[in-house]
Amino acid sequence: MFDMTPDPEQLRASHRDRLRAIRALRSSAREGRLSEITFVSRVRMALDARRRGELDAVVGDLPPRGFWARADVAIQRWWESIVGPRAAAPIDLRLPPAPGFYVIGRDTHCDLRLTDDSVSRRHAMLTSVDGQWMVVDLGSTNGTRVNGWRLQVQTPLRPGDVLDLGLQRLRIVS
Predict the structure, then answer these.
(1) Which residue among 39, 81, 147, 154 is least enclosed by CB atoms within 10 Å?
(2) 143-155 in b/e burial notation, b at 16+ Cβ within 10 A?
(3) Structure confidence at residue 126 (pLDDT)
(4) The dihedral sign for the CA sequence 15, 17, 21, 27
(5) Domain residue spans in the chain?
(6) What is the pTM of this model?
């Protein structure tokens, strides 16, 4: 007797399969688990995939969807049990009028000093590029986020943006 069920990896990839793979890639990129370059190259691979096995190879090493978001919440709750809860209201941050660069962190030599223990000694840097203020993470332990998105590259700041440095929250005001 012959087994007539096709090998799932050899089945043709449908449009829905491709969209599902791209959603998984986008979710991992949003959680800061894929760099921008890796995300773009994998999306191209997903769009070019002919078989489900090829799509599985594109997303096979990603964590389960939402895993890191749940882990981040658990880590934040653990951290708050040690150092206390995050301030309910963000601190207003007015961007400096003069162009240049300004280092944010706990160190006494930083241009903007934050005393929260979740902020690294040299956490992030504000820099002016062609009149636009940008923020760059300086390899901080707890990461830097703009409007909830973890920084991977230099990111522009606009009035109303929320900047999270560890558990410290700042709101950019004009």
Answers:
(1) 81
(2) bbbbeeebbeeeb
(3) 94
(4) positive
(5) 15-83, 91-172
(6) 0.51
